[in-house]
Amino acid sequence: MITVNYEADIVAWADQQAWLVRNKKFELLDIEHIAEEIEDVGKSEQRELASRMAVLLCHLLKWQYQPARQGASWKATIKTQRERVKRRLNQTPSLKKCLKDSEWLADAWDDARDAAEKETGISYEKFPEKCPWTIENILSDNWFPQLFESH
C-alpha cells in the first residue's frame, strides 16, 4: 500500500485513514495527524458557534443603536441566528461551555463590534467595550435591546 502524504492531499489522506480504521490496520495509521484533525473538528465547531454569535450580537447592536432602521429584515436575522445558535448547542452540548467562557464571548463581541461598525458607520469605540447583555437575554426569543440599555 502506498501511503498518502497528509500535506500533499488531505482528502486522499483522510480517505486512506478511514479505510485503514475500517480494515483494522491500526499500525499503519498516521496517529499524529489524526489527533490534529480530531482537535480541529472541535475548534471548527467552536468557530461556527462564535461566528453565529457574532452575527447575532452585531444585529442586536444595530437594533439598539439604529432604532429608526429596525425592521422585519433585522428581526428575521436575529431570529434565525438565535435558532441556529440554539440548534448548534443542542447538537453539540459540550459547546455550552463556550457561553461561560469570558474570552470566547469577548472575541465574539469584538467581531460583532467590528461588523456593526462596518454596517452602520458608527465608530467601534461608541459600542460598549464588553457585552452588556446576558446570554439568557441574547438567546431569548422575545428580547430586544433598547437604546442605551445597560445591565
Describe the model:
The protein is an all-alpha fold. The chain has one domain (10-139): Up-down Bundle (Malate Synthase G, Chain: A, Domain 4), CATH 1.20.1220. It is built from five helices and no strands. Helix 2 (31-65) packs antiparallel against helix 3 (72-91). It is elongated and about 65 Å long. The model has no long low-confidence stretch (mean pLDDT 93).
Summarize the structure.
The protein has 151 residues and is an all-alpha fold.
How many helices in DSSP terms? 5
Q: What is the strand content? A: under 5%
Summing up helix and strand content along with how strands pair, one would put the structural category as mainly alpha
Count of distinct structural domains: 1
What is the total tally of β strands? 0
Apparent shape: elongated
Q: Major sheet, described briefly? A: none
Please trace the helix and strand order, writing H or E for each element: HHHHH
What is the alpha-carbon Rg in Å?
A: 21 Å
Key phrases:
0% strand, 151 residues, elongated, single chain, Malate Synthase G, Chain: A, Domain 4, 61% helix
Note the topology.
Layout: H1 10-22, H2 31-65, H3 72-91, H4 102-120, H5 135-139
Helix pairs in contact: 2-3, 2-4
